[in-house]
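Lab notebook, entry 109. We have the chain sequence and a SMILES string for zinc ion, and the next step in the workflow is to get a structural model of the bound complex before anyone spends time on docking refinements. Request logged below.

Task: model protein plus zinc ion, output structure tokens.
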Amino acid sequence: MIGAGTNWFGMSDLYDFPDARAASRDAQAQIDDLRDRLDRMTLLSYAMWTLAREKLGVTDEQLADRVQELDLSDGKLDGKIGVPVTECLKCRRKMSQRHRRCIYCGTPR
Ligand SMILES: [Zn+2]
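Result returned:
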């Protein structure tokens, strides 16, 4: 019987494609690593927040206001903190922070 994950010969689709199996394992390992990092970041954020609340008297409302302020710093309320965009000194086109030189005219940042 042909089912999900099997081919016409009744063998697993992944059985015939070792590269696909390796890619799948790599993707799963990356997901597991990202989950671990997210768990650590969540724990660290919560520890910092509870310390700020206890030691500095910061309120939940103040935290929510700061989150919204930072979220809106790139002009979009999207639940993310944006990367600031600058202009090329020569051609005035927008430059990503990721690039050291303008991708249009090559002028260094
Ligand atoms: Zn430029």
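Notes for the group: The chain has two domains: 1-58, 60-109. Worth checking against the assay data. The two ends are 61 Å apart (CA to CA).
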